Amino acid sequence: MGHTRLGTVPKTRKWNEIVEQIAGHNLAAEVANATADVDSIAAATLKAAQKSLEKAAHDPGVLFSFFLLTQVALAARTSNWQAALGTYGIHLSDDSTVFDFTAELQDAIDRYLAQTPLSSTDLSEIAQQSAGEAIASLAGTRTPSLFGASSDEVQSAIRSLSTKKGFGELGQRFFGRFIGRFLNFYLSRVTAANLGSPRLPHLGDVARFNDALKIHCEQSARIVRDFCGEWYSKTEYQQGIDLANTSRFVAVALGKLRSELEQQRALL
C-alpha cells in the first residue's frame, strides 16, 4: 500500500508559469529574496515548502487536524453521529449546517492545541484552516447550502467522504490546501509588492492568482489521494485508526509530497 508512484502528475499549468503570473521576468531580487528570475523564484518557493513539510511531519497540530478528519468521517457512519462527534468536542444541534460543523471542527482543534504544550505553531494553524476548508468545500457541494442544511444532511454529506474513495478525495483536498498555504505564505510577499502594478493592477487579479495556485496544489496532492483512501480503509478495518498510526501515516504522506515538490523543482 502506498508505494506506487503515479509518474508525472498532469496539471493545467506549470508551476513556474503560475509564478510568472505575479512575478514577471523583471521582478527585483530583494522583493522575493531570490534572483530576479521566475524559475529561481519558483524553485526557491518549492524548496522552502519542502523544508517546512519536514517539520510538519512532527507538528502536533498538523497530526491532530488530519486525525480529526478521520474521526468525523467515521462518526458519520454511526446511528448517533452527534454523540460520536461529542467525543471530540464537536457539538451539533438538529438544525446545524455545514458552516456550523466546520466552525465546531475548528474549535475542537483549538481546544486540543490549547491543552498541548508548544503545539500552537504556524504549521498548526495552516493545518487547522486546511482541515476546515477541505470539509467545507467537499461537504458544501453535497448539501443544499452551507447555511441552510440540517444536521442529518450534513451527516449524509460527510458519510459520502467516509468510503475509501471519498476519504481519498478528502485527503487530497486537505494536503492540497495545506501545500497551497505554504507556497502562498512565501509568494504573498510578491503579490503584495506587485499589487497595483501592470501585472497585478487589481485585487481581482490577486484572487485569480490564488485560484490558479489552489488548483495547482490540489493537482500536486493527487500523489497522495489513493494512498489516503487505501490507508484509511485498511487501517480502520485491521486495527482502528488512532492518533499514533495517523501520525505515522501523515509522515509518509508528507514525504510523498516532498518528493513531488522535488520533482517539480527538477523540471524547472
User: Over the alpha carbons, how many angstroms does the gyration radius reach?
Assistant: 19 Å
Largest sheet: none
Number of helices: 12
Strand pairing plus helix content: what structural class? mainly alpha
* Proportion of beta-strand residues: under 5%
- Number of E-state strands: 0
Shape: globular
**Helical content, roughly?**
55-70%
Topology as a string of helices (H) and strands (E): HHHHHHHHHHHH
Distance between the termini: 30 Å
Mean pLDDT, as a whole number?
80
- Give the low-pLDDT segments: 1-12, 25-38
Feature tags:
268 residues; mainly alpha
Structural account:
The protein starts with 14 loop residues before the first helix and ends with a helix. The protein is globular. It contains twelve helices and no strands. The longest helix has 31 residues, at 164-194. It is an all-alpha fold. α9 runs antiparallel to α10. It has helices at 15-23, 29-32, 38-56, 60-75, 81-86, 98-115, 122-139, 151-159, 164-194, 203-220, 225-238, 243-266. Helix content is 69%, strand content 0%. Residues 1-12 and 25-38 have low confidence and may be disordered.
